[in-house]
Amino acid sequence: MLNLYRRYVRETTDTAGRITDYDLIVPDTFNFAYDIVDAIAEAEPDRRAMHWCNEAGEHLTLTFSDFKQESDRCAAFFQAAGIRKGDRVLLILKRHVQFWSAILGLHKIGAVAIPATNQLLVKDLVYRLQAAEISAAVCTP
């Protein structure tokens, strides 16, 4: 099993080997999508990352390799659409499995994902769009 956490956590132990303290080591260049998800995909491509199901009874098992491939595609799509590092993108994806690939894709290009529920009222959406200075919105019907 991959122990990625050791790259980002320094542990202090007592003489019995019990953890007594820890420090987080998070470099300025840390990117969850690349440094965690893609690292697991490289080391253990077939490892299950998620089992998704919906109220219609559909099921889908996704591996870390699946997430790497799909998030790479999302990142390329967002870049082609003009989304850049620092841009804020509102995601209203109504429990779709693509929500996770979209978030990871936005992380990869350094954009800020702002998740929102599909149950927001128009006034709530307008507020979020204005207050967060949204560059783009991705939503399902």
Walk me through this protein's architecture.
- This protein has 141 residues and is of the alpha/beta class.
- The protein has helices at residues 32-43, 64-80, 98-109, 122-131, and strands at 9-13, 19-24, 48-53, 59-63, 88-92, 112-115, 136-139.
- The protein has a single domain, classed as 3-Layer(aba) Sandwich (Rossmann fold).
- A three-stranded parallel sheet has the order 6-5-7, with helices on one face. The chain has a two-stranded antiparallel ribbon with strand order 1-2. A two-stranded antiparallel sheet has the order 3-4.
- α1 (32-43) packs antiparallel against α2 and α2 (64-80) crosses α3 (98-109).
- What is the oligomer described by this structure? single chain
CATH architecture term:
3-Layer(aba) Sandwich
Give the tally of structural domains.
Answer: 1
CATH topology (fold) name = Rossmann fold
Fraction of residues in helices? 25-40%
> Based on helices, strands and strand pairing, what is the structural class?
alpha/beta
- What's the alpha carbon Rg, rounded to whole Å? 18 Å
What is the CA–CA distance across the termini?
Answer: 40 Å
Helix/strand order, N-terminal first = EEHEEHEHEHE
Shape: globular
State the CATH class.
Alpha Beta
Number of helices: 4
Number of strands: 7
What is the spatial order of strands in the main beta sheet?
A: 6-5-7
* Unreliable runs: none
Could you describe the largest sheet, including whether it forms a barrel? 3 strands, parallel
Strand content: 15-25%
Average residue pLDDT: 94
